[in-house]
Amino acid sequence: MKRYTVRTFSLEMAMGVVALIFAFPLYILVNLALSLPNEAANPLIPTANPTFDNFARAWEQASLGGAIMNSAIVTISSVLVIVFVSAMASYPLSRITSRLSSAMFWTLMVGLLLPFQLAMIPLYQTVRDIGLLGSVWSLVLFYSGAQVPFTVFLYTGFLRALPREYEEAAWMDGATALSAFWRVVFPMLRPITGTVVILNAIHIWNDFFTPLLYLSGSGSQTLPVALYAFVGEFSADWPLIFAGLVIGIIPILLCYFLMQKTIIQGFAGGLKG
Description:
This protein is mainly α. The protein contains 14 helices and no strands. It has two domains: 1-51, no CATH class; 62-272, Orthogonal Bundle (MetI-like fold), CATH 1.10.3720. Helix 4 (99-110) packs across helix 7 (148-160) and helix 7 packs across helix 14 (260-272). This is Carbohydrate ABC transporter permease.
């Protein structure tokens, strides 16, 4: 039976302090979302008259229903394309050990180093020339290309740690390389696929600058851009902004909690690779 020591107490106190530090932004978020406009000046003080009217006002004034729908379309469509393309690309990159395969992998990894600002103007002109400016599909096209290098990196690390015996058995049964991948290998990629889905979904859902650039002046707005309507030139309606943020984080938070075990397994598999 282990004794309760001073060291155990110190560790518990340290963990408690860390938990409070991480919970502090959440407290500010909820406190401001429930505050009246005249109470928003000092978000550290708990609101004396909590109100849920901010959520209704934010929903109506910023048209959050349509904004959430646009964000969902962009996020789901982009993630599906990213998973399909990256998984297919990572399979030969992880199984073929030639110099060409290695060179192609590192060429893709260069995409992780290139800043978005370097290609911002050429990409904007390309989207404009193909007639997708102001459409949510321009964002799907952008994210599908921008997130592939990072996703290929995760998939390749996981695949390199995956035994080849399963797919080789499928080949002996007459399966092609493509059918062996989709029927045998891809189902075993479930942990890393969960990680890929949630990491890309969080990034795409919360991105502000790209939708502002490609959807500016159109009737289609994503959630972060819609909330920006509460920011004026000289002031901002912080209770409505934070109420909208609370509404906006609920879908992605539910997605994370549903896939939490899968995400941890994916990270563990990637670290082994």
